[in-house]
Amino acid sequence: MHIVVLIKRVPDTASKITIAADGRTIETAGLQFVLNPYDEFAIEAALQLKEQVGAGTVTVMTLGPAEAAQTLRSALAMGADRGVHLEHEQQLGDPYAIARTLATAIQGLAPPADLVLAGRQAVDSQSLAVGPMVASLLELPCVTDVTRLERQPEGKLRVEREVEGGHEVLLVEPPALLTTNKGLNEPRYASLKGIMAAKKKPIEEPAVPIAPALSAILRLEYPPARQGGRIVGEGAAAVPELVRLLREEAKVL
Amino acid sequence: MSNDVIAFVQARQGEVKRTNLEAVSEGARLAAGLGGRCVAVVMGSGAAEAARRMGRHGAARAIAVDEPAVHDYNGDVYGRTLAEIARARDPRAVVLSATAAGKDLAPRVAARLQAGYAADCTGVELREGRIVARRPVYAGKAIAEVGFESPVAVLSLRPNNFEVREVEGEARSRPHPRSPRACAPTSSSSGRAGAPPPI
Amino acid sequence: MSAYRALDLFELDALLTEEERLVRDTARSFVSERVLPVIERHFEQGSFPMDLIPQMAELGFFGANLEGYGCAGLGAVAYGLIMQELERGDSGVRSCASVQGSLCMYPIYAYGSEEQKERWLPRMAAGEVIGCFGLTEPDHGSDPGSMQTRARRTAGGWVLNGTKRWITNGSIADLAVVWARTGEDASSIRGFLVEKGTPGFSAPQIERKWSLRASVTSDLILEDVEVPDSAMLPGVQGLRGPLSCLNQARYGIAWGAIGAMQACFDEALRYATARTQFGRPIAGFQLTQHKLCEMASEITKAQLLALRLGRLKEQGRAQPWQISLAKRNNVYWALEIARTARQILGASGITHEYQCGRHAANLESVITYEGTHEIHTLIVGKQLTGLDAFQ
Ligand SMILES: Cc1cc2nc3c(=O)[nH]c(=O)nc-3n(C[C@H](O)[C@H](O)[C@H](O)COP(=O)(O)OP(=O)(O)OC[C@H]3O[C@@H](n4cnc5c(N)ncnc54)[C@H](O)[C@@H]3O)c2cc1C
Fold it and tell me: Minimal CA–CA distance to A62: which of A240, A231, A203, A166?
């Protein structure tokens, strides 16, 4: 079984974000970068499936700057077998271009992928797009936000996802693409032995053309400062006013 | 290319969640600015009945897809169906509410339409006739303004951030002529499975 | 509370290899997710978090810098980074790993017979056998050369008598490395591997500590303990044996202290920016900024010192007095920083809701064990002057 996991290098969500002088990107100096947390679930799921089957290859693939090789290395240290690095400098890329490029690279893999996994979202761009886009471009069945994954004896995957007011159970027959959500598993740490072994694992850099962007960030700005609290009244008498404010001003009702 | 805007609406037993109406209202506002019309595509059970009400929120037309295959949300089926309907109308934009289903559906449609996509938009405007979307990035620590290079843009709208407009009028509504089942992924000799069936 | 952020004002990360960063990240996540959630409870009740042992073993933290025998074979800097991260959690957890790796596995690795290595090292790396190191005695601390514990030769082995005190991991250990005199003076000191359960050997725990509470500290009592010849470490004799082990461990402590500093600084900075008095964050007052600036500059200096020392060690060039200087400096400043952080936190700083008080209490042990601050001063002083001030 060949499982491909799409991963991304992202700024740690605890980082302070500073908009760069160009007004369209962020300052990267001094930022801590990590493997996108949702992708960790995907890597763990891939490793567990491989362990369960007892054979197979887990390939981790990323589109990103030169430094993203470190992110691949950390996935290899967790236990993935092979890395694919598509080098590209842009920070928050156009989801379509990213998906198109990844899809082309996946198509070029030998052996072909039996299963593609991706985190449900990257914590920087927050588009929740790349997984389902890649699936659509490759005409693969796709289930997003998977919180449970089991391989059935005949090879089908039984997956669960949270939906409004409950959860949905689906049967998927590979090849397919799944995006992973929090709660699916507890990602393992890279052990020291895994880290040492990762040094010897290959990272390929296939010549895949970067697809042209269909959207672009024109400007970045800081969100407006949060407004302070307000007391609308006391006791039951305040309820109608509170409801009105929530509906008309906060627009949450 | 038309200047129309497609707004996606999900129906359940003829009921439509308020967030879907936000997509219709915003779609209509955008269409008016572009000099086109808003076409609501209503999918799910009781879609025809719901489609008739979309005019009240600014849709000039409504297309209803009410087949057993779309009674429950399934991303593969919905994605192909909505993309196919949209492609036929060659719109400037497809708008959806970024509900759980909308977030799952929008990127699939964008991929099939080769469209630039902006997720979870908190604002949409026209600047010199071009669509510009505002959306949070970096865990909300920055807001991005996104412009589009593709002829069509797909936008998912953050729920409860856009107005629901009430207007006089009724959408010209019609059922989608083709069975959406024809749009479902088919299993083929390549061994590729169909849409995962709910069990 | 948002995630921990390590201070790296001079981009020292860039001086680490990819492998070193990965090792550090593993240890850092482990501490955030597995150590910090439980450590406060263990510190309060005075117990060691035993379930961390198999986890640390699985990740390869025990004897990580040794080659073969199931050990990861890391370089000195990577090993130091593990100690740094563990001590960011708690000095007690780092102590456990230091003792296991540097004080117990290391002497077996460096001075043991092949049979001893095969027998103990893989199981110690796997966390199945926990070790301790018995050098200090009730009446002989800084001056271990005059120890009283004696090993007497018998037909097929040795009989040990004596008492060791302040022995980390003592009561939870399966194996003790016990240093004993075989003759009259320090040059006769030998190391012995004493297994738990050997008749005459017991390890009662020392209670009522207010420092290093999440660590087991014990006496080792040896009353006519018979061990075979094969229990003696053949490769070393004299004080050099235990001191060479201490050099390994002290090196790790120089790194560990940075972790404690970082934890306290991170906490103090967050608190100072969030806490307002007189209408503005206390971080806005010059006196607070002075404290934070001092902390940050001492952390940066400590990082540079440890990193350079690690690189020297990797080249086989680190001198014992360099290790003394680094241990002395870094632990001293860690204690200062923990106390200053406590000061910045005001009353909140005295509760277990915050870490700085626990670190400050722990560091009182760290500044004493593995050579007291004063003893390291004398080691450096001797190097500088050529004059021995010990006696
Ligand atoms: C929590 C904890 C864990 C420990 N774990 C271990 C362990 O696992 N194994 C082990 O063998 N030991 C261990 N120790 C013991 C530790 O190494 C000793 O406490 C240390 O060496 C100091 O010895 P002492 O306490 O007897 O103090 P002393 O040697 O009596 O010193 C008392 C004071 O006198 C000062 N002093 C002594 N000599 C001189 C001098 N020549 N000039 C100037 N000042 C001097 C010292 O610096 C100190 O301030 C541990 C100690 C603690 C607190």
Answer: A203
